Task: structure prediction
Amino acid sequence: MALFPQEALNDGVRKREVFGWAMYDFANSGYTTVVLTAVFNTYFVGVAAGGADWATFAWTLVIAASSLIVMVTMPGLGAHADLHACKKRLLAWTTAACVLATLALAGVGRGDLWLAAAAMIVSNVAYSYGETLSAAFLPELARPDALGRVSGWGWSFGYCGGMLSLGLSLAYVLWAQGQGQTATQFVPVTMVITAAVYGLASLATFVLLRERATPRAVPRAGAPGGGLRAALGQLADTARHARQLRDFSWLLACGVCYQAGIAVVVALAAVYAEQVLGFRQAQTMMLIFLVNIAAALGAFAFGYGQDRLGHKPALAVTLAGWVLMTVLAWLATGPGLFWVAAVVAGLCMGSSQSAGRAMVGVFAPETQRAEFYGLWTFATRLAAIAGPLTYGLVTWLTGGDHRLAILSTALFFVLGLVLLAPLDVARGRAAAAALR
Result:
């Protein structure tokens, strides 16, 4: 059986176009891997914020602020993209914004807290917009019974891009440390590397990916009922059908919970490794490199399993794995067990992220895909506020007890399992078909 069968794709979709779409996952994964997870988070805490007692909380506030902006704006932006069939054009603008803001992070030095915060907010908002707009192409490319596989292709390839950015950055850091350089000298270069990979790799997306949607009959921008008003009207119409869309609503609630836990791992795993286990910058980067390898394998293999096992049972398995991961991290007193926890986190991260994206595709009406992915982003950005802020508050209120903070993260995954239980995939698919 072919690993990448043509039969998994919709009529008229060629494999090279799916490659172009997957290249966006490849391009933007370096941002999450290097900026959010492995390098800039600890640099923000230790250098930009000077290692103050409130530094970790300040980092979580920055992440929360950017997530709040995305929460408020992305559903409307998604509805606008559907109405005007402009996902690809908007994707180009958001990509450019994230690349430029990531380059701005290279200018952050000791004590440059406000520059660091501003550039992080802009880059993270633009990254989130791009991730959502790219995901909205998935149902256009994959057949309904192959959404898990094709989503897994993108996520697994994406982690390869994360490993490229991280690998290049790690090689430079090791060389720089051998030359006696400090973090204020080598971390800015890693931001330039990350921005360059993002910008160059995303070019394949804009060359190969087609915009298949067609504009819907709406008044022109500036006319009564046009532009923003039309997009908000579409959102209001979706809200009026909330009772029909109860399974999508359950998915959103489940996503808020389990994505909150994932947000903690993405934003604070490196901080935990350094603060609790004494990892150095190079060790932390190698740890995240291992996580990306595990995540790539997990996303690719899990995509096939998801289509066979079913979306709901497959997601439940990964959430149970996340609970195990947080317990292992809490128990770890040395590097050994924490490395095991990191592998478990990688396997669960790739699979759970891919599963969520595929399930949204199942529940999204054909003419409202960007809007529904925008609503999913609303849930994930709310999670990105709740998760890291909870972690930051626990460390602040307990005098820096990171162990208790990581253990409390398990509650998010447990709640996700509870909220997943009422969801009925077949009923949700039928509701989406009824709205088309």
